[in-house]
User: What shape does this take?
Amino acid sequence: MSDIMDLCELSPAYVRAIAPYQPGKPITELAREFGLDEGSIVKLASNENPRGLSPKALAAIQAALPDLARYPDGFELTQALSQRLGVPMQQIVLGNGSNDVLELAGMAFLAPGCSAVYSQHAFAVYPLATQARGAHSIAVPAKNFGHDLEAMLAAIRPDTHVVFIANPNNPTGTMLTAAELESFLRRAPKNVVVVVDEAYNEYLDPVLRCPSIAWLARFPNLIVTRTFSKVYGLAGLRVGYAVCHPEVAALLNRVRQPFNVNNLAIVAAIAALADQDFVRDSYELNVAGMAQLLDGCRRMGLAWIPSYGNFVSVEIQRAGNESQAGAVFQKLLRLGVIVRPLANYGMPDHLRVTIGLARENTRFLEALDAVLKA
Ligand SMILES: *Cc1c(COP(=O)(O)O)cnc(C)c1O
Assistant: This one.
């Protein structure tokens, strides 16, 4: 056995067993692989905002560049969120993306000997955050690709410390109604933390949004997480947040790196939050783009999972008993179109495509049509 093998054995078995997160393929990587021009590539693989970021956020970033020698101070962003959400600042925890706050929930509440419950086909970070702590994962079979809350409730064991729920869920796009989620919160044991991940909240029709922030007053075990990566267009800066009971926030803050959100992310998020016109225009573009994409799928005779996010998972018909989605994904890459294969989410027959600009959606539909006809 080599020294490096001995060294790696020092890492707990549960860490060594982690299957790394598989990100959407970067444009730069595809350009290198196939010798394509970066400008000709359409990336609809990571649910990013196709409009980019608010010009006001960009200006704030540019104005803050000279201040990078200083450590960040999250006070003003926390204050802006506090005002916007109507909750005291002590209930808000900033994260390096909401991925970070999901990990903080894992760090604060999970350890070897306890378990976390989440749904089959749910966001990949839940199993990662669970396994990184050596806790046991309970993946509850989905119902019509969505969360089966009754089964999740039944799956909670005495050693369960955390339940992760994505609403809407990625990569399925499925949504739970406020009544369903509230019923779950009412019936879940009070000594189990329920993380409700609302990364796509701003893409929901306002009438479908849950009063999740208001629920915090009734459910001290609730943690709501949100992000600036999606509708706000700041995925590359990494900023998100949790809203929860102040005592829970204090625990998350104990395991949080003191300076987990950087100066540029902070000023950009403050400016982005203030630019609700940009958010509204992005929402409207998504509604139109979703209609365009689904219309194209309908014309091609394709099935999809009805989605409430800025993406949709499209079913690729099998050939005999053989899944074709992986091959279609590869052929789309050759045409310069990046989507997301979902085999690692237990969905080997689906491809997830992010709603892009109208011309990007057209590129995707034309490329998919060409691949399916070939
Ligand atoms: C994209 C996404 C996030 C946000 O990730 P960030 O770390 O904030 O970029 C969180 N949850 C779900 C379900 C997502 O799809």
Notes: The pocket of pyridoxal-5'-phosphate is lined by residues 47, 97-99, 123, 166, 170, 197, 199, 227, 229-230, 235, 240 (CB under 6 Å). Residues 55-275 form a domain with the Aspartate Aminotransferase; domain 2 fold (CATH 3.40.640.10).
